[in-house]
Design a protein that fits this description.
The complex is a heterodimer of chains A (about 160) and B (about 200). By secondary structure, chain A is an all-alpha fold. Chain A is about 60% helix and about 5% strand. Chain A has a two-stranded antiparallel ribbon. Chain B has about 200 residues and is an alpha/beta fold. Chain B folds into two domains: about 40 residues; about 130 residues, Glutaredoxin (3-Layer(aba) Sandwich), CATH 3.40.30. Chain B has five helices and seven strands. In chain B, strand 6 and strand 7 form a beta hairpin. The termini of chain B are far apart. In chain B, about 30% of the residues are buried. The mean pLDDT of chain B is about 90. The chains are: A mainly alpha (about 160), B alpha/beta (about 200). At the A-B interface, helix 3, helix 4, helix 5 and helix 6 of A face helix 1 of B.
């Protein structure tokens, strides 16, 4: 049994090994989708300006040297500054790009919850409201008068 | 005749939940309008302040040297005339003007004047190769992220700004600068000798 499990584990490792190796090797296309052309103000993959051509050649050279995606991005930041990254870094002021949507979502959920609680407290969710907004059962006197009124009609 | 006295009906919009959403919607609408107005105002103010003109104080933020490490600022050149030249190795017109600038530096460079190159949004290695290729002897700074270009309000490269000894901009020239312009517009403003 143990031998069979060991063989299975080896087989799984053999299958995963090429995938892991491929994940480390980045391509020009992958980097181009994640960095900007600083002169054009567009993604590098959409840019054809002379500066963009030099930037692509620089990335291709680093890929040929076997650099990882993160190393290449770091090298681009050294050359062109943080704005070369299409997605902001998760630190410093750039962190707000990720935090603000999360905080906005939480605020929206809290506001909705408060709104629903207030609505329920005001009796908005009661069964008497099912017929329509603002509808209430008539009082005993009104009910008697309504019955008398309806009795006049031959329905 | 029987008096009809039916219960008072409330309009649909007056239930607490609807009131809440109506007031929330109004607040959001007001906030959105204010945000749009604010953005427009910010854009107008920024547009109005972009680009320095003759008479303005030249930006003095320090920049790293293209070679040799360390940094320099325009304040390090206070007391001298400085022709600030924004360029990049990938810019073809910059190749046209580089020899003219070097010749002008050879003729007029000294304690009273210098050309100061700023390599903008360029790879360091490309910038250094450009300087070597054209034998540029004047000091070179690096503006990789384009901050200095934005401070000067440049719209591209090359662009040139002549700054007087007090740090005020005296001439602005967009595009490749010619020997004729250097001789007729820049040279007359400089000290008569190289001292």
């Amino acid at each position: 049994m143990k031998a069979r499990v060991g063989l299975l584990a080896l087989f799984a490792l053999a299958l995963l090994a090429p995938v892991a190796g491929a994940a480390e090797q980045t391509t020009l296309g992958e980097i181009e989708e994640e960095v900007m052309c600083p002169v054009c103000g567009t993604l590098l993959q959409l840019a054809e300006a002379p500066q963009a051509q030099r930037q692509k050649a620089f990335i291709a050279r680093l890929i040929a040297e076997g650099r990882s995606e993160e190393e290449i991005k770091d090298a681009l930041v050294v050359e062109y500054g943080d704005e070369v990254l299409a997605t902001p870094k998760g630190s410093g002021f750039s962190l707000s790009a990720y935090l603000v949507p999360i905080v906005a979502f939480i605020v929206a959920v809290v506001a909705l919850a408060v709104g629903v609680m207030r609505w329920r407290r005001a009796g908005g969710g009661g069964p008497s409201d099912r017929g329509g907004a603002g509808r209430r059962d008539p009082s005993g006197e009104d009910s008697d008068r309504l019955d008398a009124d309806l009795a006049r009609y031959d329905l | 005749m029987v008096e009809r006295k039916l219960p008072k009906l409330e309009v649909a919009g007056s239930t607490p939940v609807v009131r809440f959403f109506v007031s929330a919607r109004s607040s959001i609408a007001v906030f959105a309008v204010l945000a749009v107005v604010g953005l427009l105002a910010y854009g107008l103010v920024n547009k109005g302040s972009s680009g320095i003109t003759v008479g303005d104080a030249a930006p003095t933020a320090p920049l790293p040297r293209l070679e040799g490490g360390g940094s320099e600022s325009l304040t390090d050149y206070r007391g001298r005339w400085v022709l600030v030249n924004f360029w990049a190795s990938w810019c073809l017109p910059c190749r046209e003007e580089a020899p003219a600038l070097e010749r002008f530096q050879q003729q007029h460079g000294g304690p009273g004047f210098t050309v100061l190159g700023i390599d903008s949004r360029d790879l360091t290695s490309d910038g250094i190769a450009f300087v070597e290729q054209y034998g540029l002897s004047y000091p070179q700074l690096r503006d990789g992220d384009g901050d200095a270009s934005r401070d000067y309000g440049t719209t591209g490269v090359p662009e040139n700004f002549l700054v007087d000894p007090s740090g005020k901009v005296r001439l602005v020239f967009t595009g490749p600068i010619s020997e004729e312009y250097l001789r007729e517009a820049v040279a007359p403003l400089l000290p008569s000798d190289k001292s």
